[in-house]
Amino acid sequence: MEENFKMLAKTFYGFEELLEKELRQLGAKNIQKGNRVVSFEGDLGFLYKANLSLRTALKILKPIHTARVQNEQELYQLFYDFPWEDYMEVDSKFVIDSVVHGTLFTHSQYASQKAKDGLVDQFRERHDDRPSVDLNRPDLRINLHIQNDQCTLSLDSSGASLHHRGYRTVTNIAPLNEVLAAGLIQLSGWQANTDFLDPMCGSGTFLIEAAMFACNIPANINRTGFAFEKWKDYDASLFELIRESQLKKVINPSVQIKGSDKAPSAVEKAIQNVENANLSDFIQIEKKDFFQLEKENKGPLHLLTNPPYGKRLEGDMNVLYQGIGDGFKQSFPNTHAWLISSNMEAIKCIGLRPSRKIKVFNGKLESRLLYFPIYEGTKRVHKIEKD
Question: For the chain, what is the mean pLDDT?
């Protein structure tokens, strides 16, 4: 039986509990939350399953060695002495991604350079030849993490960040990160038991992530590849077995998932991305301005959207956000309305008091995920609370 080993799943700020829950549901062992990371244990098959299925993970790392290093020479020696031939060949291509914290090492690129020198000098000494660095398509992606004098070497099993789902070939100016979208859907509490609407859907990321969640489709089923597929111990038959077992859990949802946008180009892109994700049967998209929308039925509706922040688009954001608040009240009774924005001033113009305010980051932008419960027939206007 395959032995369990430690792994690390990296995620966004505020998503640690979501990722912990996902890992528990997937069957991980010894789960521990950290800062933007959750550690866990599993076997090789679980490493495949985690990469394939986790919605809120950005990377899955496999730590392979820890040591203390006090200076650059000790870092060089660590990489020179490590048994790299267990993981790569002399003609392999590799890259080292470094993250450094503390006073001993202050430049990640310099740490990567010293580590690389130690690794290639080992091969040159033994074989009179050396592996080459390839930033784009390496056979082995090595993660180097230095916290003060504590050094951890890990193998990056994912490769490109797991937000690269594989379905989005066309985007708008500021596309929403897929992992962020999946996490926001979970933070909003949607359980795929009410209809879902994004009235400013852009390239359709919320819609696609919602549909994949509702259908129980593995998050990264559309990816072209993972870094572990180039590892020396890669088991293709095991990966296919894991993939097939996850696909057997796919269901047909009983709810409607709809989106709209006023920009024809955005609607075209969203439809194309939905087709790429093979979800055209589950998502409806139309060209329509938010201010022309009316709720289609009396049942409960879950609304989640990412309106412009004013960072790239011109116009009076305060007026726009006031209109959004008015639209919520007038056109969407019996609705759980959620929106994310980094425009703290414009948020105050919505004219409704949010029941919840959750701090999140959209890229480097500190943002708020806001919840406005819109009740049947409510016309009351509240002043929004200041942070």
Answer: 93
Judge whether 88 and 94 are in contact, CB under 8 Å: yes
What CA–CA distances, in Å, run from 170 to 42, 200, 250, 271, 283?
36, 16, 26, 10, 17
Read off the pLDDT of each residue in 361-380 and give the average, rounded to a whole number: 86
Q: What is the pLDDT of residues 341-370, one digit of tens each?
A: 999 999 999 999 999 999 999 999 999 999
Tokens 């409960």 sit on residue: 300
What tokens does 163 get? 């937000």
Q: Torsion angle, CA of 118/120/123/127, rounded to 10 degrees?
A: -140
Q: Which residue has the tokens 């740490």?
A: 111
For 185, 266, 269, 272, the CA distances from 169, given in Å and listed in that order, are: 22, 13, 8, 8
The domains located in the chain, with CATH, are 5-156 (3.30.2130.30), 178-217+227-374 (3.40.50.150)
pLDDT of residue 384: 40
Q: CA–CA separation, 267 vs 229, rounded Å?
A: 35
CB atoms within 10 A of CB 68: 10
pLDDT for 34-68, tens place per residue? Answer: 999 999 999 999 999 999 999 999 999 999 999 99
